[in-house]
Amino acid sequence: MSVKKIAVLTSGGDAPGMNAAIRAVVRTCAYHNVEVLGVYRGYQGMIEGDFVELNARSVRDTINKGGTFLKSARSKEFRTPEGRKKAYENLKKSGADALIVIGGDGSFTGALLFNEEFNFPVMGIPGTIDNDIYGTSHTLGYDTALNTAVEAIDKIRDTASSHDRMFFIEVMGRDAGFIALNTGIGVGAERILIPEENTTAEELLADIEKGYAKGKTSNIIIVAEGDKSGKNVFQLKEYVESKHPGFDIRVAILGHMQRGGAPSCYDRVLASRMGVKAVETLLEGKSNYMVGVNNDVIDLTPLEKAIKGGSKLDMELVRVAEIMSV
Ligand code: ATP
């Protein structure tokens, strides 16, 4: 059966570049004379039949905007067979015969179930700042988040240097250290704590003491949300202070500022390439793939593999970070 109308939605945490990906899907469909249905609020909007017909002109002025104009949501109801059935019936009624999901691994798990239950063609585009998806070297929003974090931490460093202060800076990354490790190297951090490593507070303290002995006067320590020290940034500060009451230590949590903002040029181009590939793969009659980029080539990974593949953090980067903080 040839695809005549493609539905597109954004799901899970928003990420810069999602708008650019929706735009790319819509324009590729227009190019191939295929209709497009926008689904508001991810799977929840599918369950509620909250749809909008889109055309090439509906996505003007969106490539440069953060967030997602289709809005995103987390839907508990879609986790149930009844919820997915409602979603399927609405989608069928709308005339859509394929679905593109822009989101993270949870969203892909939902898409795969939807395909298994209703034999409905699905494609995934990885949109999450965490970069924690197997099968692509970059997820949409990751590059922008790195640049946002680096810009913010550079500013904090000015104060750290001027006042000989130590800063514990928490960046996003519950399960993956991509943001922490790359921003850490990018800002010249003295130490980086990531979920993939088991650094204890004692080891961290020993490294800080070594740094001071070597003549360091200020310290930027990057901590991923999900680091394994067993202490959050405030507890780490208290711990180091308890051993060195003379140290001037501050904490900064970058938080949601990392998720927003205009996408970087890299993310805009990546979103455009991924959108084209997602639509054209569906038009070729294929399903259940995630579009990814590897060595700057756009390719496909089975959704199942993308979900289960696990972390791809480059441990050589950990070594580079260690050397840089000598
Ligand atoms: P992020 O990386 O930003 O967290 P994500 O796509 O992994 O993005 P989730 O909240 O895990 O975000 O998933 C988004 C939505 O996908 C959920 O709210 C739910 O509707 C659907 N979903 C996730 N897991 C499943 C599942 N096992 N079965 C059915 N639907 C699911």
Automatic annotation (TrEMBL):
Residue sites binding Mg(2+) per the record: D105
Record's keyword terms, sorted: Allosteric enzyme, ATP-binding, Cytoplasm, Glycolysis, Kinase, Magnesium, Metal-binding, Nucleotide-binding, Transferase
Protein location: Cytoplasm
Activity modulation comment: Allosterically activated by ADP and other diphosphonucleosides, and allosterically inhibited by phosphoenolpyruvate.
GO biological process: one example: fructose 1,6-bisphosphate metabolic process
Phosphofructokinase domain sequence ranges: 5-281
A single GO molecular function term of this UniProt record: metal ion binding
Protein family membership: Belongs to the phosphofructokinase type A (PFKA) family. ATP-dependent PFK group I subfamily. Prokaryotic clade 'B1' sub-subfamily.
Protein name, per record: ATP-dependent 6-phosphofructokinase
